[in-house]
Amino acid sequence: MAIIFTVNLRRNYFVSKYEGRISYAEALDKWKNFLEGKEWVPGQNEFVDLSKAQLNEVTVEDLMNLASYIEDIYIKNSIEKIKVAVYAPNDLPFGIARMYSAYADESPELVHVFRDKEEAIRWLLTE
């Protein structure tokens, strides 16, 4: 259905909010538009909100491909490390986010998955 990106310049992070059924093709398209557009500020941390996401169609290969694409963009922009806090209160998105964190382990992304939104934001904003 939708992935909505919102940039918070004051706190130096952006939000990616997933709502409804998300396919890999849609996710890749949205990420390309955001990361290759004018709104993204390289080096910002990320807060991912999967609280309303339906990820039934996402495959392991999809996760690996998306992680690879994002890693390539970060490396091209000389980003050494960013924090990614994932809020996933439901079981399926939580498990998928944990798998994604494993694929991103060698990339500039330091991904932590949380079931509690406030805990995720607190972790994201600590140095």
Short description:
With 127 residues, the chain is of the alpha/beta class. It has helices at 24-35, 60-76, 91-103, 117-125; strands at 2-8, 13-21, 45-54, 82-87, 109-114. It has a five-stranded mixed β-sheet with strand order 1-2-3-4-5, sandwiched between helices.
Summarize the helices and strands and which ones pair or pack:
Layout (H helix, E strand, L loop, with lengths): L1 E7 L4 E9 L2 H12 L9 E10 L5 H17 L5 E6 L3 H13 L5 E6 L2 H9 L2
Parallel strand pairs: 2-3, 3-4, 4-5
Antiparallel strand pairs: 1-2
Helix pairs in contact: 1-2, 2-3
Q: Taking all residues together, what is the mean pLDDT?
A: 93
Structural category is alpha/beta
Q: With helices defined by DSSP (H or I, 4 residues minimum), what is the helix count?
A: 4
Q: What is the H level of CATH, i.e. the homologous superfamily?
A: STAS domain
Q: What are the segments in which pLDDT stays under 50 over at least 5 consecutive residues?
A: none
Beta strand count = 5
- The best one-word shape is globular
Helix coverage percent: 40-55%
Instruction: Give me the CATH architecture, please.
Output: 2-Layer Sandwich
Query: What is CATH's topology name?
Result: Transcription Regulator spoIIAA
Distance between the termini: 34 Å
Strands of the biggest beta sheet: in what spatial order?
1-2-3-4-5
Radius of gyration: 13 Å
Q: Give the topology string: H per helix, E per strand.
A: EEHEHEHEH
Identify the CATH class.
Answer: Alpha Beta
Number of domains: 1
* Biggest sheet details: 5 strands, mixed
